[in-house]
């Protein structure tokens, strides 16, 4: 038996950054908003015993429980897709705040080049720079159009940084708070990068350099550099997250409700509009329908795509014909880099999730690709995030992976190792996409999402080029041994890489080649909005959330306008 | 290394250490025993007393929660000790109580795979697709340990725990190189699990029963649970900080 509830103006599926931003903006405008979150309530008070690598970083205390739901994976269409049975390559969020509770806080605006990548590449290198197998396309929005929303997101989170990067887009205002402390480890990188003629700058950080009150009146504290940031919640309320900013803002309006333990399984559609969502109470397994004037999918890349697929909204991408947009342009990232082993001991165990310095000299199109067989590049950073002993056992090349020699080397180098790592952009390829699995189901009986993905020639070329640059910096930093990362072969879902999954619900200017328009309004249902890094038509050389946050603010504006005027926003 | 391995009589250690009855394992005590049995050892294992080890730990009762046979537990103990051996830096897996840590974990959600997707059908996949076994981790450990015994018997006609260090290494390497036939899982997968669990036990907060006396942290220069480094983060020098466990603060 399904219980139909009283209708609301807006329902969001999931309450992470995107769900929280929509809730805050819409409820301030007087719209009644309900957030359905499959996980539990949580907040700063829950993190007083969070300095526990084993529970949080190794056993994934705050992440999705895969026994309830996962996805299936194969490297290519010929392979049989099998479930990702334990977390690995990326860590999916659950609970109030979503992955925004246990993220690092490295917060970027994608480059102006990213939004118009197709046009700019064709113009500079001709139409045949990449083969037709690479499905790059413009995003249907420019950096300048999105700039006010970047600004809005950064003010909400109190972003700490300095405007010293010659390669990124113009900013309409300064960073809300100054950069974090430039520690000796970062200075080492800065000096090496400067010596080599590059332009280092402090990484924009949502681990705040000082206490801050945002425009909504929410307070964020100053980071204590405790070294337990990524995969952990912050016990100081110093790492900006949805549950200390946008969620309380929404609640204070009196127009917002979060319903926990509520797992959405379907978006209901009638004609060219959606009518609400169907969900299960995860405790009692009771079934409900929540009618709403506007439905917003804010349940992360994977679940957003899955919900559209199981609800039969939009046209599924077919790699055979190239037709359809849903599931298209899934992209990930490549991680070129190099590690240096030093003589002297350093305070590598101290740090913060977004404490780092970066160069963009090899990101986007900031360097000439005329003689190179790839486009785009990577930001290169040295971060001091706080090494922890279980997961950090660096050893010089040739060291065995266990036994006496391993023990000695891993202990010796724990405090004597620094890395320079790149976040390599990932270009979409016609064979990389999301679909629905026809064998495996979640505990609600809904098919699992299926991921078909492998690295491409473009990825391999980019990886080896950038790795060489990283190794050069590490050498200049004074390492006695430099270990550059090996060539990449097939994508492997086992080791952690990044939770920077993109694509599948891409935005664009043309309904034939995108799922949503540049207000993230679904082309096939004007009262359905889809937000997340799934909107990215390719993946850039940075972490995604700055750009996701900007898109969410723009989407909120669209929803508010739609609620008043109706119709298509573009 | 070989020299030292010969001096280290596992049999004696296991008979005398009390590990069998699970009576005492405050790092000091077991560490001391290892020291006593290792002729060449100096006082390296005494570092426990200078590392701020809790006194209560040595009087707390320890027992096995997953393993039902001491023989199996001893095989596990020796295998982990080969992966993370005692040396002049400090205790190895046994001295750090890693086997107890693993025993505990195997009895709980880790061993029971309670957060993993375990729905059928199961099929052999490519290595890039990861875990595809229908076995739970604790079943893998039981099978792996039995096979270590069998290998010791067939290769050396003796019990695993009575082997010399290099002989144990030979068997562990065979697991690592996927040369051992396991049912329902590849031996290299099991070996990776065993290696990882050993490191977890060596370095997890002592509240989980391993990392006895925080000696794992002490060796590695990791201070454990500290509230903040804001005062030290700009220090040019390496800052030595006495480690702290979550169990000491709450
Ligand atoms: C360890 C880690 C470190 C990271 N570090 C950084 C970083 O430094 N910089 C950066 O930019 N990004 C980082 N990220 C990525 C960042 O966390 C995400 O980009 C961001 O949180 C995405 O926000 P979201 O709202 O799209 O999704 P999420 O935060 O994932 O929120 C989605 C919510 O929807 C809920 N949900 C899902 N399905 C359903 C359903 N069917 N019904 C009801 N609810 C559902 C989930 O439970 C979840 O709470 C990191 C991620 C991880 C995991
Ligand atoms: S490093 Fe800073 S932001 Fe991160 S958890 Fe610690 S105090 Fe919070």
TrEMBL record, chain A:
Keywords: FAD, Flavoprotein, Oxidoreductase
Residues annotated as domain Glucose-methanol-choline oxidoreductase N-terminal: 214-329
UniProt keyword annotation of Protein transport present: no
Cited SUPFAM superfamilies: FAD-linked reductases, C-terminal domain, FAD/NAD(P)-binding domain
Domain Glucose-methanol-choline oxidoreductase C-terminal: 428-552
Transmembrane region(s): none
Stated family: Belongs to the GMC oxidoreductase family.
Name of the featured protein: GMC family oxidoreductase
Lineage: Bacteria, Bacillati, Bacillota, Bacilli, Bacillales
From TrEMBL, chain B:
Protein name (Swiss-Prot/TrEMBL): Dehydrogenase
Pfam family, one: Gluconate_2-dh3
Domain of life where this protein originates: Bacteria
Keywords carried by this UniProt record: Membrane, Transmembrane, Transmembrane helix
Transmembrane segments: 12-34
InterPro entries listed in its UniProt record: Gluconate_2DH_su3, TAT_signal, TAT_signal_bac_arc
């Amino acid at each position: 038996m399904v219980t139909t509830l009283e209708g609301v103006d807006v329902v969001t599926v999931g309450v992470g950054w995107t769900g929280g931003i929509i809730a805050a903006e819409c409820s301030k405008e007087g719209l009644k908003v309900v957030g359905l979150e499959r996980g539990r309530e949580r907040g700063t008070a829950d993190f007083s015993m969070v300095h526990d690598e084993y529970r949080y970083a190794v056993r994934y205390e705050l992440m999705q429980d895969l026994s309830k739901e996962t996805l299936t994976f194969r490297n290519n269409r010929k392979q049989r897709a099998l479930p990702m049975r334990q977390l690995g390559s990326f860590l999916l969020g659950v609970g109030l705040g979503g992955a925004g509770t246990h993220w690092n806080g490295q917060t970027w605006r994608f480059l102006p080049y990213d939004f118009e990548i197709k046009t700019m590449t064709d113009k500079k290198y001709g139409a045949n720079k990449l083969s037709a197998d690479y499905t790059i396309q413009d995003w249907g929005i420019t950096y300048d159009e999105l700039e006010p929303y970047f600004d809005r997101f950064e003010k909400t989170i109190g972003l700490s940084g300095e405007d010293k990067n010659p390669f990124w887009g113009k900013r309409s205002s300064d960073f809300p708070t100054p950069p974090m402390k430039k520690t000796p480890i970062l200075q080492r990188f800065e000096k090496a990068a400067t010596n080599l003629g590059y332009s280092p700058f402090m990484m924009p950080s949502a681990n705040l350099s000082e206490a801050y009150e945002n425009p909504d009146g929410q307070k964020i504290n100053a980071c204590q550099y405790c070294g337990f940031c990524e995969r952990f919640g912050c016990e100081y309320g110093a790492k900006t997250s949805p549950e200390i900013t946008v969620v309380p803002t929404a609640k204070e309006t009196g127009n917002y409700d979060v319903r926990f333990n509520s797992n959405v399984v379907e978006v209901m559609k009638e004609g060219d509009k959606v009518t609400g969502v169907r969900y299960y109470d995860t405790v009692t397994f009771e079934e409900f329908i929540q009618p709403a004037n506007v439905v917003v999918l804010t349940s992360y890349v994977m679940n957003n795509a899955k919900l559209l697929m199981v609800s039969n909204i939009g046209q599924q991408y077919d790699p055979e014909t190239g037709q359809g947009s849903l599931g298209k342009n899934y992209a990930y990232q490549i991680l070129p880099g190099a590690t240096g082993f030093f003589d002297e001991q350093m305070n590598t165990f101290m740090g913060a999730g977004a404490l780092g310095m970066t160069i963009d000299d090899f990101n986007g199109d900031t360097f000439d690709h005329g003689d190179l067989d790839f486009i785009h590049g990577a930001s290169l950073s040295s971060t001091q995030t706080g090494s922890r002993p279980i997961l950090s056992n660096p050893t010089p090349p040739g060291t065995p992976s266990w036994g006496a020699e391993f023990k000695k080397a891993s202990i010796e180098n724990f405090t004597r190792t620094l890395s320079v790592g790149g976040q390599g952009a990932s270009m979409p390829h016609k064979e990389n996409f999301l679909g629905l699995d026809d064998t495996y189901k979640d505990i609600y009986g809904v098919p699992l999402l299926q991921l078909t993905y492998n690295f491409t020639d473009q990825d391999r070329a980019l990886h080896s080029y950038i790795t060489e640059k990283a190794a050069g910096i590490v050498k200049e930093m004074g390492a006695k041994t430099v270990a550059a990362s090996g060539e990449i072969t097939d994508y492997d879902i086992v080791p952690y890489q990044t939770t920077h999954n993109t694509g599948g619900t891409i935005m664009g200017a043309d309904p034939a080649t995108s799922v949503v328009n540049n207000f993230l309004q679904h082309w096939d249902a004007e009262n359905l909005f889809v937000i997340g890094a799934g909107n990215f038509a390719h993946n850039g050389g940075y972490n995604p959330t700055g750009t996701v946050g900007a898109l969410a603010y723009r989407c909120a504006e669209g929803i508010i306008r739609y609620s008043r005027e109706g119709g298509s926003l573009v | 290394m070989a020299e030292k391995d010969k001096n280290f009589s596992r049999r004696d250690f296991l008979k005398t250490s009390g590990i069998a009855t699970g009576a005492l394992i405050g790092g000091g005590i077991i560490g001391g025993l290892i020291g006593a049995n290792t002729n060449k050892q100096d006082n390296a294992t005494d570092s426990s007393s200078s590392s701020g080890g809790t006194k209560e730990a040595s009087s707390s009762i320890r027992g096995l929660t997953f393993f039902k046979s001491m023989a199996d537990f001893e095989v596990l103990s020796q295998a982990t000790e080969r992966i993370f051996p005692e040396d002049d830096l400090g205790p190895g897996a046994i001295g750090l109580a890693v086997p107890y840590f693993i025993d505990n974990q195997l009895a709980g959600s880790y061993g029971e795979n309670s957060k993993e997707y375990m729905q059928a059908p199961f099929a052999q996949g490519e290595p890039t697709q990861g875990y595809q076994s229908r076995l739970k981790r604790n079943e893998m450990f039981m099978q792996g340990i039995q096979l270590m015994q069998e290998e010791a018997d067939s290769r050396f006609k003796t019990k695993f725990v009575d082997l010399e260090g290099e002989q144990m290494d030979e068997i562990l390497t065979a697991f690592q190189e996927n040369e051992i036939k396991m049912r329902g899982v590849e031996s290299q997968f099991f070996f990776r699990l065993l290696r990882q669990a050993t490191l977890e036990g060596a370095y997890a907060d002592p509240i989980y029963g391993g990392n006895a006396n925080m000696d794992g942290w002490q060796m590695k220069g990791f201070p454990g649970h500290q509230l903040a480094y804001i005062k030290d983060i700009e220090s040019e020098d390496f800052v030595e900080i006495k480690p702290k466990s979550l169990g000491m603060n709450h």
